[in-house]
Amino acid sequence: MASWNEIKAKICKTTDKVVAKTSEVADTAAKHVRMKTIDGKVAEKYEELGRVYYVVLKGEEVEEGKAQAIVAEIEALVAEKKAIKAELEAEKQRREEAKKAKEAADAAADAATAEEAEAAEAPDEETAE
Question: Would you give the DSSP letter of residue 68?
Answer without folding.
Answer: H
